[in-house]
Amino acid sequence: MRTEPLRHLTTPLATVRNLGILAHVDAGKTTVTERILFTTGTTHRRGEVHDGTTVTDFDPQERDRGITIFAAAVSCAWDGHRINLIDTPGHVDFADEVERSLRVLDGAIAVFDAVAGVEPQSESVWRQADRHGVPRIAFVNKMDRAGADLDATVESIRRRLHPVPLVVQLPIGAEDGFTGVVDLVRMRSLVWADGEGTVEEGPVPDALREEAGRRRRRLEEAVAELNAPALEEFCAESALSAPTLTAALRELTRTGDGVVVLCGSAYRNRGVEPLLDAVVAYLPSPLDVPAVRGTHDGVEERRTADPEAPFAALAFKVNATATGRLTYVRLYSGTLEKGDTVWDPGTRRAERVARILRVMADRHERLERAVAGDIVAVVGLKSSRVGSTLCASDAPLVLEPPTVADPVVSVAVEARRSTDTGRLASALARLVEEDPSLVVRTDAETGQTVLSGMGELHLDVAVEKVRRDGGPEVNVGRPRVAYRETVVRGVTGLVFRHVKQDGGAGQFAHVVLDVEPMDAEPGAAGFEFRSSVVGGRVPQEYVRAVEAGCRDALAEGPLGGHPVTGLRVTLTDGSTHVKDSSDTAFRTAGRLGLREALRLAELALLEPVAEVTVTVPEEAVGGVLGDLAARRGRVTGSAARSDVAVLTATVPLAELFGYATRLRSRTQGRGTFTTRPTGYAAAPADARVK
């Protein structure tokens, strides 16, 4: 185990690791990151979240609130390898930050609380990593806490996340007595002396030798079941050598067939060195991940992580300030040098790279060049946004951008002084540029500026950022949720004729529409358009125009102007005029025809709902359950954990505003809760309108 100064490290791609830290809020992600930076010699003092001295939580709001809000990138070196690390948020309101980070990462460390096990947001970020195919290793943190249990946490990982956990360590001591681990791969002990921060390697303690032998055997058997070369050696030798076991664990991690599990206490700096060794040993380099896929003129192309290949990179984060823009990019192929001109196929503009920076949270180190596999920040791009592809002009390519979730909560914002309206508009534009999950629009009926996001905290952070970044003083309205409307009972054979004759060429379109729910369950999402017209009564180009018109009509439903979802529209008949029919006429007929059909159909309001996990003292359970019921919550589970109860309920999002204050008052400040959006559900029956 050794460190090297990053500036002297010139590593090939095989010695690069691009990874993220994923976890539920308060599981210890930022502390793990801080200890990694300290252990690798990148920083010379240990930053603490509660003191506001961490490197990655450098934003004033993060330090005030004690949580990670913005994904922060750092770089360090360990044992001849360069590690590009992104500390991601754990709060559900900032899940889009995690999504954008996972899009460009090759691996991840999933951090779990040794007492709480798999928590709701742990499960969410794990599923996000599954969607992106990101290999992971697991680190069970807080082994020094009362009630810490490695085996129980591993079982919750197996039960709730469904991987095959491959535990490679055995803790030495428990709770306050946790002092080290037994490395089951190399059968040695690693002990951290109190206050020293340095690891002492030795033989397996006599008291743990038998238990370590059993666990090593269990690990060998699990690996042999999943890996063919390991099975061959196991059958021949009845055991696995350390090199074979390490190679098999690396392959199982890369394919996702197994998850290596380690343990420690980041706060006490115990277990960080073996965690770094596991990152180097098991997580993939840019050479180990599949070639990135993109398109050019509708044809799929693949680019390997080759510095000599044509340049291609993806912008995944933007810091837009009044003094300039910092664009974070992941290079997938080719080489980028300071002063290069790159092509943005999305905006069809050439951009000049003025500077290339190695990022250390809010500090930067200037680079002359970056190569495939690097994660760096560039200065000088004027129009590129989050999700933009940057490529060589003579080898254009468009990479798939990160997905952006639809916002679920909105507030009206306005400048307190009318003279600051322009400043507010500029500040909101910078916000949206940095965070695509925020949406700014003007309400057509009220003329208000509406800011929409992923949750109450998300919007609170956004508004506070406007204030702190020199923006104007802002008045904020009460949060509102994003309702939807859906079809409960449709209409059949609705006839609509669009005829317009006001001189010159007229407009004529005749359509017959059937409208029905997409699914038997209220709240089924989506929109489907079909055509059953026969005999060419409506030409195909006009059918496409009718579909476009129907999609236009979905923007505002008749109940309250909310978007309409969960319906199927079928064009069954129609007719044309030899002179007056056109795409425009049929698009108008589709829009107005579907609006009329929706007015005649039976509709229902849909409201966003969230899964709420509440942790409260046992004596406060009754009051909390009553409060959840008053908020139209449906309790779906409960569990006892030492002296607290963990309640799970599904609650309409609109009922959760102000819940944090209410919960604190009912539990004397000892209760906590987390939320996770779970989609939409039908609003109460009295909200239905026929």
Automatic annotation (TrEMBL):
Cellular localisation: Cytoplasm
Cellular-component GO terms for this entry: cytoplasm
Pfam families per UniProt: EFG_C (PF00679), EFG_III (PF14492), EFG_IV (PF03764), GTP_EFTU (PF00009), GTP_EFTU_D2 (PF03144)
SMART domains registered for this protein in UniProt: EFG_C, EFG_IV
InterPro entries: EFG_II (IPR041095), EFG_III (IPR009022), EFG_III/V (IPR035647), EFG_IV (IPR047872), EFG_V (IPR035649), EFG_V-like (IPR000640), EFTu-like_2 (IPR004161), G_TR_CS (IPR031157)
Domain Tr-type G: 14-287
Any GO BP annotation: ribosome disassembly
Sequence segments annotated as region (Disordered): 669-690
Known role: Catalyzes the GTP-dependent ribosomal translocation step during translation elongation. During this step, the ribosome changes from the pre-translocational (PRE) to the post-translocational (POST) state as the newly formed A-site-bound peptidyl-tRNA and P-site-bound deacylated tRNA move to the P and E sites, respectively. Catalyzes the coordinated movement of the two tRNA molecules, the mRNA and conformational changes in the ribosome.
Official protein name in the record: Elongation factor G
Provenance organism: Streptomyces brasiliensis
Gene that produces this protein: fusB
